[in-house]
Specification:
This protein has helices at residues 9-17, 30-46, 63-69, 82-95, 107-113, 133-143, 159-172, 189-198, and strands at residues 53-57, 74-79, 100-104, 118-124, 144-155, 201-212, 217-221, 227-234. By secondary structure, the protein is α/β, with parallel strands linked by helices. The protein has an 8-stranded mixed sheet with strand order 3-2-1-4-5-8-6-7. Helix 2 packs across helix 3, helix 5 (107-113) runs parallel beside helix 6 and helix 6 (133-143) packs across helix 8 (189-198).
Length: 235
């Protein structure tokens, strides 16, 4: 693989086809809107964003990138899904969000172009959609400044995650479109931790994310059996 081909065209097509619905809070992206405050507050609890230069890898329609900019960060969101990026740019204009910009480029190519540039790098709900997640982790590590934070979120690979994140979320509850996730691409916390160690990222914190389908309530916990997030730091 070259530095620019660590992507799956079918995965990009999935999100491009739904691009116009990114900012509809009752659409297929409702779960992202619901968990975004949890992700944002967790990131802010470890590193206040005001005045920081932040990169959001796999930003999609800009839900997290936009909210980080509203906390006072200077945010660059990158993705390879052209339509989603256009939606993100349009929303920033309509919402008059200062401090956020978007660019169509891979993390690997940006790392070659701008190494050690960002105070904070986020890569949320993206690793399970690329052929080689370890390379994305390495690129994120190269993009952050020494002492800077890199945040990841993804889905565990086990029977419970298959039942909850795929069968439940996609087929029973219809929370997200069917076919959004492939079981074989899900990533165990131990595997992601290994990618981070290999990229010289030190583990700072691990958090699980849980969901009650009856109350439609999400919360953070110590349970990483399904959805989980890692906070790491380049030392």
């Amino acid at each position: 693989m070259s530095t620019s081909d660590n992507f799956d065209p079918a995965e990009l097509a999935k999100f491009s086809d739904l691009a116009h619905r990114w900012w509809d809070v009752e659409s297929e992206f409702r779960p992202l809107h619901q968990i975004n405050p949890l992700r944002l507050d967790w990131i802010e609890s470890l590193v206040p964003l005001a005045g920081k230069r932040v990169l959001d890898v796999g930003c999609g329609g800009g839900i997290l990138a936009d909210s980080m900019a509203r906390k006072g960060a200077d945010v660059l969101g990158i993705d390879l899904a052209t339509k989603a990026l256009k939606v993100a740019q349009l929303h920033a204009l309509e919402a008059q969000t200062d401090g956020v910009s978007y660019r169509e480029i891979s993390a690997e190519n940006l790392a070659a172009e701008q190494p050690a540039t960002f105070d904070v790098v986020t890569c949320m709900e993206m690793l399970e959609h690329v052929p080689d997640p370890a390379r994305v982790v390495t690129a994120c590590a190269e993009l952050v400044k020494p002492g800077g934070y890199v945040f990841f979120s993804t889905i565990n690979r086990n029977a419970k995650a298959f039942l909850f994140a795929i069968v439940g979320a996609e087929y029973l509850l219809n929370l997200i479109p069917r076919g959004t996730h492939e079981y074989a691409k899900l990533i165990k916390p131990s595997e992601l931790a290994g990618y981070c160690r290999a990229a010289a990222l030190d583990m700072e914190q691990v958090r699980g994310m849980e969901y009650n389908p009856l109350t439609r309530h999400y919360w953070l916990s110590g349970n990483t059996s399904v959805n989980y997030m890692l906070a790491t730091r380049r030392m």
